[in-house]
Write a structure and sequence with these properties.
Length: 182
């Protein structure tokens, strides 16, 4: 099935299922469904190390992780400074706690960097797609402007807007990037 048929099929399914809500067309609902399917497929195709890093990063970024650390570190500090009944002091200088926290920080920062690298790669792909869609829309609008001018000329209606000639010109992406990079 080609992309056009797939798009039409998804739009029809979305319309049948009532996915198009007020303010959202069936085509928009189908586009959202395709994006969700793509993200799910990307998750399924992620390597084991990426999935593990993502799971660890998700857990360490949760309030559950914070609560566990408060309990663990608070209990450790209390047991070794003021003492707890039935718990002998096992790290009175808290050196072992500092070492454990340092090692944990090293590993957690590595997992966060792995997740950030994956997110940056996905963001770069989305930015490229956005650029391609923008350039395609610009090209299509340029063609529509030329067609509109031809229709206006055929009907004897002249375009008075001096900017219209500029609208009909294709944008050169390299020139724009060179200008932005200055």
């Amino acid at each position: 099935m080609d992309d056009g048929q797939n798009r039409d099929t998804l739009a029809a399914e979305a319309a049948r299922e009532g996915a198009a809500t007020p303010g959202m067309t069936a085509t928009l609902a189908a586009n959202i469904a395709r994006l969700q399917e793509r993200r799910a497929a990307e998750q399924r195709h992620a390597s084991l190390s990426e999935r593990v890093a993502e799971a660890i990063t998700a857990f360490t970024g949760s309030m559950t992780f914070v609560a566990l650390h408060l309990i663990l570190f608070g209990g450790w500090i209390a047991a070794n400074t003021i003492g707890l009944p039935a718990v002998p002091r096992f790290d009175p200088s808290l050196v072992v706690l500092a070492m454990a926290a340092s090692v944990e920080a090293i590993f957690l920062s590595t997992f966060v960097l792995i997740s950030q690298n994956r997110m940056a790669a996905a963001a770069a792909r989305r930015a490229d797609l956005d650029l391609h869609i923008g350039l395609l829309a610009e090209h299509e609008l340029t063609r529509v402007a030329a067609l509109l001018e031809a229709v206006a000329t055929h009907l004897g209606v002249g375009a008075v807007d001096p900017e219209f000639a500029e609208v009909k010109r294709d944008v050169e992406p390299e020139t724009v990037l060179d200008t932005l990079d200055g």
